[in-house]
Structures are given as C-alpha cells and as structure tokens.
Design goal:
The structure is a single chain. By secondary structure, the chain is an alpha+beta fold. The chain contains two helices and two strands; from the N terminus they run ββαα. It has a domain at 1-42: Erythroid Transcription Factor GATA-1, subunit A (Erythroid Transcription Factor GATA-1, Chain A, 2-Layer Sandwich), CATH 3.30.50.10. The longest helix has 12 residues, at 27-38. It is elongated and about 50 Å long.
C-alpha cells in the first residue's frame, strides 16, 4: 500500500480509493491548500504573462452571437 504525507499538515495518508481527500488527509487540509492558491501564497514560478498589450484574435461569429 502506498502512503504519502498530506501536503498541508504532513500526516501520513494511505493512497487508496476509499480515502476521499487524497493526497490530503481531510477536507480541511484540502481547503487550506485551495485558499493558499487563491490568495497567491502558492504559485508556480515563472514569468507573468502580460496579455494586455497583445493583439487577441477576434471572436468567431458564433462566439459573438452568444455574447449578444
């Protein structure tokens, strides 16, 4: 059986289908991690994409119709 550490609290978690929140040990730890991504505490390193100055393609006719 595979065991991993919960990314939030470090508790050992069995990697089985019956463990609902894997790789987290609980819903609480899962939500703490989600909150860290949402507030920017967790992020993937790299350059920030600046799309404000780029020309974006015009929406297709079907996309324009849906927006109306």
């Amino acid at each position: 059986m595979t065991r991993v550490n919960c990314p939030t609290c470090g508790r050992i978690v069995e990697w089985t289908p019956r463990v609902t929140w894997r790789p987290f040990c609980s819903e609480r730890c899962k939500l703490i991690d989600l909150g860290a991504w949402a507030d920017g505490s967790h992020r993937i390193p790299g350059e920030t994409a600046d799309i404000a100055g780029q020309d974006l393609p015009a929406p297709s006719k079907s996309e324009a119709d849906r927006e109306s």
